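Collaboration report, partner site 2.

Our partner group contributed sequences for two proteins of shared interest, and the home lab folded both. The records are reproduced in the order in which they were received, starting with the first partner submission.
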Amino acid sequence: MSDKLSPSLSADGIWHLIRLTWITRAKAQDFWKDLKVPALADLWGKENWALNADLETTIQAMSLPPLVAAAANKPTGFVNSYNKWRNSSRKWCQDNRADLLTIFRDATLLSLNDQSRFALAKKVEKLPGVPPPSGAVGDASPASVLTPLLACLDPHRRFPVINGRKAVQRLLSKLGLANHTVSEQVKGMLGLIGKNGIADCFMLDVLADSVVAFAKKVPKIPASHKKVENGSSLPDFDTEEREAVQQSKTIHYRNRHNKMTGALKNICKGWELKRGTQPHCCYDVLIENYEGTGRDLLLEVKPDPDRGSIRIAIGQLLDYRRFIPHQAGTDLAMLTISRPEQTYRQLLLDLQISPIWFSNDSCKTLAGEGGVWESWKAALGI
């Protein structure tokens, strides 16, 4: 569909894109007649189309591009959108066409970095509500109408579906985000992907009721860590990062670092641990097939869980992963001695980096958080 997300896409075309995510349970076997086929006909300019006995022959007669026809013959649609807003959303698409085009184009360009999803969610929450038909009361949330399509357009299948479905609302309530902004809800839902076998946003949507059982309330950021709008004069260099770099050159630091990697080798006797040897990719530890499903684990080792070390580790992990052969199948983790502060553990988790730590300087016991840790812990038999 990305070739159709051009400035020339009409408001009706936008509406039909959204309709491709809909189903109608009352017509579970043939909702394609009312939704899928009319939408495809409009999007590909098929004016003289007609319904045949079944979907396959109907699609064949429409002479759609081969890839589109192949996709259209498969089951599509997963949202039983509330009937009251199905038709009224058409006028809403007309009124907000320019903003919607920008949002959809941005969705097709989403990267692995979830900051782009937070920014996209902010654009969604700025849209006006979708008004109901004349005489009805209450607007529909723009997120409820748009996020199913955004999930489909996301190349990495990560943008969560946030609509009025009861299971989704129960999950948001469990996270403490029921009455929060769309961007806060997206951030909270994204934190669940990669944990407990939740591979992507569609699995999260399907298993929303099950996820409620282990989902935890999203912690509030302490006042001391909240964003400050008014900055100060630009310093020469971040003091904590400078100190972390200087400390990394000391004999004491290297000894602790080596002790950690040695302890890790003892714990991971069933795996081969590799280290980066290229100047541009000098990573600490790479464990291939670390949890038995073909995924690799890239670990950055920092003895101290201080802010400067964590910031440096984030940059190293994101940079190193670009240069390893199995980039798309490599998970990230940071290993420290003692547990980092909660706000920085949350930062790591938001970036899909699992914080893992030795309980103390003896480096005998591992603990951690996040999907990577849960999978690795099971593989280690801890």
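Second partner submission, folded after the first:
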Amino acid sequence: MFTVDASVYVSAMNSGEAASQQSYAFLEKLHAGRHAIYSPTLLLVEVAAAISRALGDAQQAIDLTQSIRDLPGHVWIVLDAGFAEASLRLAANSRLRGADAIYAAVAMRHKAALVTRDRQQIKRLRPFLTVMVPEEAIELLV
């Protein structure tokens, strides 16, 4: 089981990033294997915003984001009061940005590995849960 941060999706869609191919390969293998992916609905908002800024095309960002929403394996998690409480505690205890704490709370609740390109998440969350980059996570996929 996995929770995948928006940084991995954005990296996969941006061929100009150094690790784009590795991010894309991980996501392709993850979705092809129909693994459970616990994702906060926030993922869709973050990806749409990043892609729109990068491409300067709002409709293309919306279309790409909707294609992510429809990928197999996603279990979409809504930020309710329970997740907000868990996220705020993680944010405070690990000095994370708010959105990063939401991904971490989803991963913790579902006993999923958090896959990210965010160095701060990797460094600050390893004491609390399994955190890895796509190159490490792809080794776990069968």
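Feedback sent to the partner group on the second submission included the following. The chain has eight helices and five strands. Strands lie at 2-4, 37-40, 74-77, 113-115, 131-132.
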